[in-house]
Write a structure and sequence with these properties.
- The protein has 478 residues and is an alpha+beta fold.
- It has 2 domains: 363 residues, no CATH class; 104 residues, Sandwich (Immunoglobulin-like).
- It is 41% helix and 18% strand.
- A hairpin with a 4-residue loop joins strand 15 and strand 16.
- Helix 4 packs antiparallel against helix 6, helix 6 crosses helix 7 and helix 6 crosses helix 8.
- The chain binds iron/sulfur cluster (2 copies).
Length: 478
């Protein structure tokens, strides 16, 4: 069943469901009810347009930006690393990001408790691409919503066929662009550009991924559309626990609007401000009637606000019958300006994000682990020397191969097997080495000696410690 058409021909909204609470895009027997959201204009629409174009630049631009020799950000699936602002992070570094993940979750709580679903209506890529890229293309090729609806209802014709073909060719092209950009977040822009320049036969796996991503985005934006928000988005499911009565929502002022009724200007005795024009329903991308109250399907996209404001203006009534508001505001209760919950969230998110940022950006590029090797804690060599053996794990987290030298970081009577030798570790590689330290017996105190060593490659010096053990009671310090 379809919704109404424009102007006086608008029939009452009939979803084939009656006035029950069933999801508006699901009809009898579970069939899909297609939504034809009417176009809107107004302040909120203009603001959303501006935000959307900035976000499109961000979402589509980020993976193509280089930061020195590497992408600004890339989850490098080939080398199991994250490239971020010229640094590479490996699975062992996940612990550095954990406070950041927690900060992100707390920030989601904070943002949602304060601004409701503003993310869904204003910034979610699904909304931004669907409403500000694919819908304008659809409108350009097939016309305004009421026209598209009328054409689809009229059935097969040459006019409808060429428009559908043209629209889907354009949809596929844009999906190809979005799909490749999404891949660039994981492959890097150079790999993506290389793959799309090759013939499919030369690189069937790469071509398969490009094709799969293209088809996925094409399907989501040409067919699945608002169902992604309504049926599968996990964030939407959390709303009921994240929102409270003070959270910002798109709400209908029923005190002012009811009793709704068409009536005539100047003779609306006993009627509220809602003229029951259903424009708020016709523009809604999920097909809901906000006058029924807060609903899971509401994306807070504010389209109904603009639609209703224009009706109010035409009827010479104040705007804001539908507005950004809160439940407590709608019910005329005290609006709490300072909410302890939000302060706690904000402090927690800031502290956790700060900890994570500090850990991530101060992480050394060289990691050294030392493990004692062999069955004996030490071996006597001659009268006055002791041998300690270790396995040294050196991970080079830098983007380049490095050559390292090992030296004692403090005065020490002894030597090791890497003196006057160097070893190389590839970018992101782990090198395992044997380290044999021979020390004079005098170096031990109570059978133990904490020894500092340096690993250096000219540019970077990293100090690490090994614990030497020797014969108890034989050193000069005993
Ligand atoms: S757009 Fe405004 S006046 Fe028209 S039905 Fe919706 S709430 Fe009522
Ligand atoms: S009810 Fe209004 S704000 Fe909510 S999704 Fe529909 S048009 Fe957007």
């Amino acid at each position: 069943m379809i919704q109404g058409v424009e102007g006086p021909k608008i029939p009452p909204l009939n979803l084939g469901l009656g006035e029950n609470e069933t999801q508006p895009t699901i009809g009898e027997g579970g069939r899909r009810v297609w939504i034809y959201p009417r176009e809107t204009s107004g302040k909120k629409t203009r603001h959303r347009n501006a935000v959307a174009w900035i976000l499109l630049l961000v979402y589509l631009g980020i993976p193509w930006i280089q930061w020195g020799e590497t992408p600004l950000i890339q989850v490098d699936v080939f080398q199991f690393r994250l490239l971020l602002m010229g640094h590479s992070y490996y699975p062992q570094d996940i612990k550095l990001f954990l406070p950041g993940f927690l900060a992100f979750i707390v920030a989601v709580f904070l943002f949602t408790a304060k601004f409701g679903r503003a993310w869904c209506g204003w910034a979610c890529p699904q909304t931004v691409f669907l409403q500000f890229v694919f819908s304008p293309i659809e409108r350009w090729i097939e016309g305004r919503a009421w026209k598209r609806q009328a054409r689809d209802a009229a059935g097969f014709s040459f006019d409808i066929v060429w428009r559908k073909i043209a629209k889907h060719v354009l949809f596929l092209s844009v999906a190809f662009l979005i799909g490749n950009t999404a891949l660039a977040y994981f492959w890097g822009r150079d790999n993506v550009l290389w793959v799309v320049r090759q013939s499919p036969a030369a690189n069937p796996a790469g071509f398969g991924f490009v094709l799969a991503f293209t088809l996925l985005f094409y399907w989501v934006f040409s067919y699945f559309k608002e169902q992604a928000c309504v049926l599968i988005c996990p964030y939407a499911r959390f709303q009921s626990v994240l929102l409270d009565e003070h959270s910002l929502i798109v709400g209908y002022d029923s005190k002012r609007g009811e009793t709704r009724g068409k009536g005539l200007m100047g003779s609306r005795e006993g009627l509220g401000d809602c003229v029951d024009c259903r424009q708020c329903v016709l523009v809604c991308p999920t097909g809901i009637d906000i006058r029924k109250g807060q609903q899971l399907e509401c994306l807070a996209c504010t389209r109904c606000i603009d639609a209703c404001d224009s009706i109010m203006t035409a009827w010479k009534k104040p705007a804001g019958l539908i507005s950004y508001t809160s439940l407590s505001n709608l019910e005329g209760r005290l609006v709490t300006k300072i909410r302890k919950r939000l302060i706690v969230y904000a402090v927690l998110a800031t502290v956790l994000a700060g900890i994570s940022a500090f850990l991530v950006f101060t992480r050394p590029d060289v990691a050294v682990d030392v493990v004692r090797r062999g069955f004996n804690p030490y071996t006597n060599i001659g009268e006055d020397s002791v041998l300690n053996t270790f396995t040294l794990h050196v991970r080079n987290k830098d983007l380049h191969r490095r050559e390292f030298a090992l030296s004692f970081a403090e005065p020490f009577q002894g030597h090791h097997n890497w003196e006057s030798r160097r070893f190389a570790v590839g970018a992101g590689q782990l090198q395992t080495l044997e380290l044999n330290v021979v020390s004079h017996r005098n170096e031990f105190q109570f059978g133990k000696r904490d020894l500092k060593l340096d690993i250096r490659d000219g540019a970077v010096t990293r100090e690490f410690k090994v614990v030497l053990v020797g014969p108890f009671g034989t050193g000069k310090h005993n």
